[in-house]
Amino acid sequence: MNASKKLESESSQGIPILLEIIQKYLDHQILLPTYKNDTYTKHYLMEIIRYKNKIQFILNKTLRSMKIDKTQRIIHENLLFYAVYAFFWEKKSWDKIKNESFPLSLKKDQIHLFKQFYERLSNFKWEYALKGKTKIEKLSIQDAIPTFFIQKLLPVMNLNEIQSNSEKMDVQARIGNFTIRLQSEDELIDFENKFRHLNFIKDEDIPKTIHIPLKHKAKIIASKFYQENKFIIQDKSSIASVYLMNPQENEKICDLCAAPGMKTRLIAQISKNRANIVAVDFNLTRLKQIRPMMQKIPSENYHLIHGDGIHPPIREIDGVQFDKILLDAPCTGSGTFSTHPELKWRQNLKFLNQNVFLQEKLIERAYYILKPGGILLYSTCSFYPEEGELHINKILDKFEIEKLPSWISPCYKINNSSLLGAGRFFPTIHNTNGFFIAKLKKKSNNYIY
User: Fold this and answer.
1) pTM: predicted TM-score of the whole model, two decimal places
2) Can you give the residue ranges of the SAM-dependent MTase RsmB/NOP-type domain (predicted)?
3) Which of 86, 170, 180, 266 has a CA that sits 20 to 30 A from residue 63's CA?
């Protein structure tokens, strides 16, 4: 059974649960992660959230055309949200929607109004609905892109680039590839022999890394390769941050914001489980998830530390500091709308400033616990220069920039010049998240800020 038919078969049982969760989201309630275990609910919830402002705009325009305000509504907004998505994205007929809504036990007057609303959607025309809107407003509404996201990126991108990268993130959530990295060359050969028919692509830049069409993900996860922990599933940009740090045997390495531990595990694998790793995270629940992951490799040269990365409870032994630090800093997630569409609608100046402040403090701490000549690999899954280039530009007197390979795109220009040791991954170019990366070498022990 293909994915679309499976969703259809689940709709009659799943729609009451789906609508309940949509309403919780619209009411700004916390959603428990258990909904992700239900394919039907997860699919529709993520896609409706992804296009939330677009759906809301169509919904409001249609109700106004029917001369219905909020006080006159006898149908819950969650059902109307679902109806708009079903009409415009899935082209569902009224009969199909009516059958799906049967478990809701709608009253006769509710069904009548719901039918009027659904049929009125066919009259919606973008050329009239967007009349009088600015270019930015039109792009925000029609492509479901946060206005703040557009305005923040206009100094470093044009509107076409913003639109194409945002669209790529939306599309690759459904029809893109997922990326895996195998532990060894032997396992890579075994994998190729087993799954050659899946039309996967070997990455040209990072060894033992493969890109596989999303439609095969369930099959791969069910395979012995996954069950026996022969590979990790991770975005290429995230794999690149560890690969470029180049962990070596016997090095003291700190993963300063480690949870959920995928990069910690990759550090261990690349160093052949011989690097001495300290993984720090403030979220105890997520930190505990790292241990079983590391035990499956297996790796013993690691320590998990529950603490704030700004003030990690790390005792220096004989004054020895870390050879390398990975700082994949908490951020706005503006480059991860593909897998986290809910972050679209959290983008605002307050959210950005909170993350920028935290990143500054984490960079300061990383500098302090990094030995002279040590390597700091700083990264964020964000498009904003405030979370990338502008940080690096402030600390150039304390770090030497390490050149990045040419397969990483140049970063944004700051004061008309590029930082050679910093670069970016773009969805439209690399088929990855939007991602900033910088590789820096500490000059001295001088304290920053």
Assistant:
1) 0.92
2) 161-443
3) 170
Helices (H), 370-416: 389-394
Cis amide prior to 260 (ω within 30 degrees): yes
pLDDT of residue 49: 96
| Residue burial 317-347, b: 16+ Cβ < 10 Å; e: rest | eeeebbbbbbbbbbbbbbbbbbebbebbeeb
Nearest to 45 by CA among 93, 6, 7, 73: 7
Question: CB neighbours (10 Å) of residue 66?
Answer: 13
Can you tell me the distance from the alpha carbon of 196 to that of 267, in angstroms, rounded to the nearest whole number?
28
Beta strands in 329-398 (DSSP E): 370-380
Residue with structure tokens 């689940």?
10
Pick 85 or 444 by higher pLDDT.
85
Task: Identify whether the C-beta of residue 6 lies closer than 8 Å to the C-beta of residue 30.
Answer: no
276-281 vs 302-306, strand pairing mode: parallel
Helices (H), 154-235: 159-175, 185-195, 217-221, 224-227
Report the sign of the C-alpha dihedral through residues 407, 413, 416, 418, in that order.
Answer: negative
Residue 103 above 90 pLDDT? no
Q: How far apart are CA 302 and CA 408, in angstroms?
A: 30
What backbone torsions phi and psi does residue 261 show, to the nearest 5 degrees? 105, 5
- Residues with Cβ within 8 Å of 171's Cβ and at least 6 positions away in sequence, in order, are none
* DSSP H stretches of helix in 176-235: 185-195, 217-221, 224-227
> 62: which residues sit within 8 A by CB, 6+ positions away?
84, 117, 120, 121, 123, 124
Q: How many CA atoms are closer than 13 Å to the CA of 72, on its beta-carbon side?
A: 8
